[in-house]
Amino acid sequence: MALSGIDAVVFGVADMTEAKRFLDDWGVETVTARPDRLVYRTRDGAEVIVRPHDAADLPLAIESGNTVREVVWGATSAQELNWTLEKLRGLPSFRTGADGLPRVTDPNGLSLAFRVSKRTPITVKPTPPNAPGSHQRVNQRSPVHDQARPINIGHVVMFAADFAAMRSFYTEKLDFVISDEYPGHGVFTRCQRVGDHHNAFILNRPSRPGINHVAFTLADIHEVIGGGIAMSKKGWKTEIGPGRHPISSAYFWYFENPLAAPLEYYADEDYCTEDWKPGTFERKPELFAEWAIAGGIDGKTRRQVAIRDQSGRGHA
Ligand SMILES: [Fe+2]
Q1: Which end of the chain is more exposed for a tag (fewer CB within 10 A), N or C?
Q2: Which residues contact 120 (CB under 8 A, 6 or more apart)?
Q3: Strand pairing of 195-196 and 3-13?
Q4: Which CA distances in Å does 174 have to 95, 114, 162, 310, 313?
């Protein structure tokens, strides 16, 4: 396969100071912090790049307000990159940017750039579970996280103005594989035949392109919960979460933010090979979330802390 995942996402925002405050709390590592340019890195080196929304060199916005201005897709080698570019060179939007990166515009109007990946894949060991007769965590406590540290940028979800055109662009031009589908309404696609459940999820919203959310991968459910509570305690508002998606199996927590549409913490999604059987589903709320807490868990009022405060005694 040609592309290995999201190497960078470029945002255009109205308030750089607020964007910086959010990313400092989100758990990504600061690389550059200038008034007109923020660069942060996930643990594997994927970049979050933030620019003022009116920066002259930003690609056009596909919707009003704070939003994603470009997605940079990585390939594992120059050869793999060329394999993708061969399919893109004939497109009218194919161009080379001032930074030397090849680019196209997808049918939604979103700029896509391509490069040999700067990420360094890392191996993450989630906390192993225990169950009667199956003890995978022995003589080891399960951790409590007081801060998430995103591992990579796992997926971007887009509202497609022309769903059929977007579906065929991502599956035929970028050669993404369909993992699951709401026929006519949404398609979950992954960029590797053997890989995580989705890197691009395309939702049908006729005539109005946009970004639905961008998602950051964490190690396991404990980090989703601990990281989400940490964001809540810092005052960031939950859009929805924690919860669990039945399609992709992932645990999630979405936050409103000053960068774009919601940003998501998630963990434990399905991993697919050629033997994965894509499903077709009717689009309905219970397939978005098996369960979810609207408004999140209030990070200031964890039960045992509140009880201890009021009674003077702790409850073990
Ligand atoms: Fe997501």
Answers
A1: C
A2: 44, 45
A3: unpaired
A4: 16, 11, 17, 58, 60
Ligand 1 centroid from CA 264, angstroms: 6
CA–centroid distance, residue 23 to ligand 1 (Å): 18
H or E stretch at 40: strand 37-41
Percent of the chain with pLDDT over 70: 94
Q: Please tell me the pTM assigned to this model.
A: 0.94
Q: What spacing in Å lies between the alpha carbon of 157 and ligand 1's midpoint? A: 7
Per-residue tokens: 284: 């309905």
Retrieve residue 228's tokens: 């989400």
What spacing in Å lies between the alpha carbon of 215 and ligand 1's midpoint? 5
Which position has the token pair 């033997």?
275
48-65 pLDDT, tens digit per residue, is 999 999 999 999 999 999
What lies within 8 Å, CB to CB, of 143 at 6+ separation is 127, 222, 226
Q: Report residue 294's pLDDT band, with 50, 70 and 90 as the boundaries.
A: confident
Q: With contact defined as beta carbons under 8 Å apart, do 292 and 249 qualify? A: no
240 residue type, one letter: I
Q: Quickly tell me which residue has 């600061």 as its tokens.
A: 30
Sequence-distant (6+) residues with CB within 8 A of 41 are 28, 29, 31, 47, 48
